[in-house]
Structure formats: structure tokens, C-alpha cells
Amino acid sequence: MLRMIEFGVSLPTIGMDDPSAVRLVAEQAEASGLDSVWAADHVVLPTSHTSTYPYSADGEFLIAPGLPFLDQFTTLAYVAGFTSRVKLGTAVTLLPLRHPLAVAKTTATLDVLSGGRSILGVAAGWLREEFEALGLDFEHRGAILDESLHLMRAAWTEQEIRFEGRFFDVSGVQSYPHPAQAPHPPIWVGGHTKPVVRRAARFGDAWFPPLFGTTPQQLADSHSAMNEEAAAHGRGDNAVSLSLRVLVDLRSEPDLPGAEKRGALTGEPQAIAATLGQYAEAGVSHFVFLPQARSLADVQRTIDVLSTKVVPGLRP
Q1: Of 62, 155, 229, 264, which cross-links 259 as Cys (Cβ 3.0–4.6 Å)?
Q2: pLDDT by residue (tens digit) across 281-296?
Q3: What is the DSSP string of 129-151?
Q4: CA-based angle 60:198:277, to the nearest 5?
Q5: What is the pLDDT of residue 2?
Q6: φ and ψ at residue 56, rounded to 5 degrees
Q7: CA-CA-CA-CA torsion for 302, 42, 92, 62, nearest 10 degrees?
Q8: For residues 102 and 201, what is the distance between their CA atoms, to the nearest angstrom?
Q9: Residue 190 above 90 pLDDT?
Q10: Cβ 177 vs Cβ 116: under 8 Å
Q11: What's the pTM value of the predicted model, to 2 decimals?
Q12: d(CA 51, CA 258)
């Protein structure tokens, strides 16, 4: 493989009672040569819901009620203070849950304070009950996300914001600082549906689907069609790169039924590397690993196995 391939890991922002876990994992990721660390997002979680989680065979959500769930931007700003190299990504920000100007400001601040290391992953969201709890529009979340990305790019690049849309009407204001990265931090569009593909073609620097219910060939075909659409929008050739969200269960006693249900990779590191190699050949340039873990020790063991036994076989 001649392309440079990068690797990241999700921080333990969910379910960890010890707040030092975030620092220990981020430091381990940077010391191990990984390229990025990531934080997940929900504002509130319902105690029960009828919404179907799209990335599980039975529609069951991965997160049980009552678990600690740290705010992603606060976490990444904290991590920026004691790391120097790893990129800091949101996987993903549920943008329709927030005003886009507020997210633009927060993202720009993180980018400036980290020396240009932020990546903004975005998605529309799937949990109707969360939108309802916040008094927000669930039915039009996709259109709101698209318009939000337009407005955020204006906030990041224009001296004075002038924007008139269906959901937002803004004029006569400024948003500073602008991000350290020009013209703005990379936007990774999460998800796998046809609207997501269209959104990534228009706005994305990367498409960020999960390794769930797809094959390398299917992913390559969708990515190729996406870049054709991006070119039709005047964005040039190969404007949108391909990143992949990968659940891995590398615990000494993995949850095999759960792994099968959620598309998590298990087994020998060499076999996992071989599987990921097929996706790398299909065009993936950045893998983001989500360790399936019950404890900090599980996460640390997973990073050790990935960095010493999986990643080296995939580096050019």
C-alpha cells in the first residue's frame, strides 16, 4: 500500500467512573504512534426509547442508561493541553442538537488552542427521544444539518456573516477567532444512508461510515460515486477521502454474540489486520477504532494490541 494510512482510537468518555482514564488513554495513544483520538456525543439519553439504533443487527443501542457520558468538546480541549501530536476528533457531533454558530465557535477555539489539530465529525442523529427532550425538530434534522454546515463555513471564513436560509437567518455579526486550519478544520460526515452520501459529496472532507453491513467493494463503489458527485459540484477530483469507524473486541474474553450483532472485529490480530487491509485497498485512509471494553485495563490492552500487532501490518 502506497497511501499513508492513519489510525485513531475512541477515548473512554462513556462508562468510566475514573476520570483519569481519559488522560491515560490519550497519552498511551500518542506514545503508541496512533494518529488521532476521538470523543462521542449525546446531550441527554432517555431512560427508555423506541428509536432503532441503526448500527446493530437487532436495533439495540450500545449504551446502557445511567452510565457516565462526558461532553466531547470539553474532553478534547482537556486532552489538547497534555498532547502535542494526535489529532482531536468528534465521532461524531450531532449537529442538529445545537446552534451551528455555537459549534463553529467551539470548534474554532479547540483548533486554535490545539495548534490546528481538530477534526469535526458530524451526523444528523437517530434518537428521536433526545431531540424531543431538547425541544428540537427531529423530522427535518438532515436539512438542518446541511444548512448548519453552510453557516459554519461562513462563520469560519468570512469577516462578517451574512446568511439567509430556511432555518437560520444571520447578518451583521462576526465569529472570531477563525480556526488555525485554513479554510477550516476537516469535516467528516458520519453515516451510511443515501442522504449522508449526498451530504459528504457537498460538504465533506471525508466520509465516515461504520464497518457495519458493508463489504470493501460496496464501500469502494459508494465512495467512487460520492466523488463523482463531488466533482459535479465543482469540488475537483477525489475531494472526499474515506475513513472508517471500526468496533474491535480484543479483550481476553470477548463478547462474541455482541460482536457479531454490532459488526465488531474479534480474533487474532493478524486476521484483523488482513480484514482491514481489504478495506484499505478499497480506499480507506483513516481507521478509527472503538474498543469494546468494561474497564480501563480493557481499553489499554486493546490499544497495545492494535499499535503493536495490527497497525504495523497496515502501515505503508
Answers
A1: 264
A2: 999 999 999 999 989 9
A3: HHHHHTT--STTHHHHHHHHHHH
A4: 65
A5: 52
A6: -145, 140
A7: 40
A8: 24
A9: yes
A10: no
A11: 0.97
A12: 19
